[in-house]
Amino acid sequence: MSLVPMIVAAQSITSNIARYVNQLIRPFADEKMKPVTFYNEADFMRKLIAYACDQHRLKPTTLFCTIHVTNFYSLDEHHAMIDTIISFLQDKSANNKVNQISINTIKNLLQLYLYNNLFSFQNKIYTMKKGSPSTMPLTETLANIYLYDWQKSILNQFEYNQELFGRNTDRIFFTWNQSSEKLDFYLQSLRQRQPNVRFRLAIGSNVHYWDAYIENRKGELYTRVYHDPMALRYTLPYVVGHSKMQHSEWLRSALLRAVCYCSSAEDFHQEHIYVELTYLANGYSFYFVESHVQHFFDYFEDDAMRYRTDPSSYHSFRRR
């Protein structure tokens, strides 16, 4: 049975160690992994559009590949995880220190943290053999470093400067300009060589990554918002506390995402109508929806874009 522990004892000894180590190595690791990291949805779309606009990079035969790592919080046993982290720090550090703290000290702290995370279940105490609590930011940092080392095997298969490659936590996206059979064969062999990293794979001229549908239309990039056909439609995110305030912020975020993801004005308009209907279906007044949507277009100084569909006006609005 695979468990993802969520530890709520925020002031425990291991939690304090985790916070301290995370403050030490997270900025250092993020800087080193920056070239192959998507920081958010907008960052991903900017890099994808830049790739598509760069001459001779997106071809009619270009394929997209997504990898979803399914055991992100429990990638390997503790000793192997520590060895990988320490090897990364030693390789990237010039003086065998991170923020004036020796790497050996960091190794000792990681051992204290990983080997002493305990949790109880039905009056029995358990220790974790793999991973650590998903509620601790250090867990994500360690997994990111571990996958950074693992993904080198994929990067070695193509010329990095000719392709787009990036990862955000447990999701990888990259372009491919060789045969899909060759890529699939290599990734399946990688799965067998390193079975500790479990993942789902998608290769094709169209994929979805994050909440974006991405398609190569004979060398032209087409994108829009992706809606999971298995998910319940017209639902708002569950929030605790001041739901009206948080749903106000989510409405703005949903409209920004629609502009970010939709490469055509028609898709953008369809998406913002979908967002409006979602709020109306959940009991919000027409005045609430209308005032927020109008404020969105006023903020970007293009009220007419709410009704325009010509491509040039939309692309100008999208850049803003």
Automatic annotation (TrEMBL):
<protein>
    <recommendedName>
        <fullName>Helix-turn-helix domain-containing protein</fullName>
    </recommendedName>
</protein>
<feature type="domain" description="Helix-turn-helix">
    <location>
        <begin position="236"/>
        <end position="293"/>
    </location>
</feature>
<dbReference type="Pfam" id="PF26215">
    <property type="entry name" value="HTH_animal"/>
</dbReference>
<dbReference type="InterPro" id="IPR058912">
    <property type="entry name" value="HTH_animal"/>
</dbReference>
